[in-house]
Design goal:
The chain has 361 residues and is α+β, with helices and mostly antiparallel strands. It contains 11 helices and 19 strands. The protein has 2 domains: 128 residues, Creatinase/prolidase N-terminal domain (Creatine Amidinohydrolase, Chain A, domain 1, 3-Layer(aba) Sandwich); 214 residues, Creatine Amidinohydrolase (Alpha-Beta Complex), CATH 3.90.230. The strands form 6 sheets. The chain has a 6-stranded mixed sheet with strand order 4-3-2-1-5-6, with helices on both faces. Strands 7-10-11 form a 3-stranded antiparallel sheet.
């Protein structure tokens, strides 16, 4: 990955962002810009300099990770007071210091205002690093695709267990273990396994309910490789779905997902992709059963820019990684969702998740 080129690209946007420097407080953004993966740290980015501060737990780790990423960042290790003093000294002379508007607390802002030199104005800067993160380089794509491959193979290995009437929890544990066994450093999020009426809850948690033949089972899961995540949902049934209403529901979702994928290409808005899925489900009489947005960006976080939702004006650019995941949910009856992670290209998409969408086991 070209980590070293990220700070210069951010600094080049300072005039556009209305600041002379940016204090990065979001740890995922700190990792993106420097390679540092610690649980505490601040990054001050200046036009021609950058300072990373953290505490003694990360004295050696910070140096090693920043060096591995080949990022020219100064590192200051110390107690909170020493870190604040280092930031204050480095920020002297700045007229406008940007703060990550979606991350920093009111209390932290007040403390910074008191610590900084008089004449330094704090300005809110929304989504500056997140905008850079939305377009993946080849190294990032390789890691996301690696995570997707692990999830694909793991699901193929364990899905036959559904015919043994496991509980939702038992199947989720087996799936998570198989992803770890195949090289994932962790699961991308808490895996969702929702059967029967639980499938009507888009973010149901695995329960002790046993999975019975003929009911829909929504399985939403992903893996992590070197910090990067995948995300996929499949809805399956042990034997033919019963009643026919469930089969029709799932097939309508499959049609809607194909419509959404066809709508994805560089230059369209996330809202346009959402509309394609929504119109497809509306034609099947399921408009009111689609309870969430069509998708989201995926990378170091499982939900990041760009947004693929009803009111999204985000432009999908070549190299963005997004999900397309329409769903339909019938209270007390069941639900269905089909999701793929894909790369936006100039003419369409490249699928990263490749598990079959055949739904009868």
């Amino acid at each position: 990955m070209d980590v070293a080129g990220r700070i210069p690209r951010l600094a080049a946007r300072f005039t556009e962002l209305g600041c002379d420097g940016l204090l990065v407080t979001n740890l995922t953004n700190v990792r993106y810009l420097t390679g540092f993966t610690g649980s505490a740290g601040l990054l001050l980015v200046l036009p021609d300099d950058a300072l990373l501060v953290s505490d003694g737990r990360y004295r050696d780790q910070a140096v090693a990770e920043v060096a591995a990423a080949e990022v020219p960042v100064r590192i200051e290790i110390g107690q909170p007071a020493g870190q604040s003093a280092a930031i204050e000294q480095a920020a002297k002379g700045l007229c406008r210091l940007g703060l990550e508007a979606d991350d920093i607390s009111w209390g932290d802002q007040l403390r910074l205002a008191a610590a900084l030199a008089p004449g330094t104005n704090l300005v809110a800067v929304p989504r500056a690093v997140e905008t850079l993160r939305a377009i993946k380089d080849e190294g990032e794509l390789a890691r996301i695709e690696g995570a997707a491959d692990i999830a694909d193979v793991a699901f193929a290995q364990v899905k036959e267990l559904l015919s043994e009437a496991p509980t939702e929890e038992e199947f989720a544990i087996a799936l998570d273990f198989e992803m770890r066994r195949r090289g994932a450093e962790g699961v991308a999020f808490e895996s969702i396994v929702a059967s029967g009426p639980n499938g009507a809850l888009p973010h149901a948690r695995p329960s002790t309910r046993r999975i019975d033949p003929g009911e829909l089972v929504v399985v939403d899961f992903g893996a992590i490789v070197d910090g990067y995540r995948s995300d996929m949902t499949r809805t399956v049934s042990v034997g033919a779905p019963r009643p026919d209403e469930l089969r029709e529901l799932l097939e309508a979702v499959l049609v809607a997902q194909r419509a959404g994928i066809r709508a994805v290409r560089a230059g369209v808005t996330g809202g346009a992709v959402d509309a394609a899925c929504r119109e497809s489900l509306a034609s099947a009489g399921l408009e009111e059963a689609f309870l969430h947005g069509t998708g989201h960006g995926v990378g170091l976080e499982v939900h990041e820019a760009p947004s693929v939702s009803q009111d999204s004006t985000d432009i999908l650019e070549e190299g963005a990684v997004v999900t397309v995941e329409p769903g339909a949910y019938l209270y007390s009856t069941g639900g269905a969702r089909i999701e793929d992670t894909l790369v936006v290209t100039a003419t369409g998409v490249r699928l990263l998740t490749k598990s079959t969408k055949d739904y009868v086991l």
